[in-house]
Amino acid sequence: MKAPSVYIAAPLPLRARALELAGWLREAGVFVSSTWHASERATVAVEAALSEQDQDEIAEQCLREIARSTHVALLCGPPTDRHGNVAEAAYAAGLGLPVLACVLSDGVLPTLVLRPLVTVVRDEAELLAVIAGVGGGS
To answer: Within a 10 A sphere around the Cβ of 105, how many other Cβ atoms?
Structure first.
């Protein structure tokens, strides 16, 4: 069985939460395959100023990282106009990867269309339990 490798999908306003989750997963011995959240370029302002070629390169890198992963952790927070994480979750589901939606206390699942594609987890502990294959999720 392949060792767990998790891509963290989150809207840019939840970047700090994605960084926290990445650290928590690494401490638990899980490889974090996503790199977008560690980049200083991961801000709305910087992203808006990028050339189309730079935007395409970042998108392609994210898709490659998802394809190399065993799971995708989808962080869902308050409503936002940033929806790249929804596309990432749908792409992962299309590849047959488990998508674990962690809906934060002030959050909502971005669209009901995701409901049949994801497993909803309550918190990071349940996320890790599902990744480790010891239960959890709804």
So the answer is: 8
pTM for this entry = 0.89
For tokens 């699942």, the residue is 109
DSSP 8-state assignment for residue 110: S
pLDDT digits (tens, 9 = 90+) for 56-114: 999 999 999 999 999 999 998 888 888 889 999 999 999 999 999 998 877 777 777 88
Please enumerate, as own/partner, the contacts of 23-32 that have beta carbons within 8 Å and a separation of 24 or more.
Answer: 24/124, 25/73, 25/124, 25/128, 28/128, 30/4, 30/5, 30/6, 30/128, 30/131, 31/3, 31/4, 31/5, 31/6, 32/5, 32/6, 32/7, 32/8
What are the tokens at 42? 């991961």
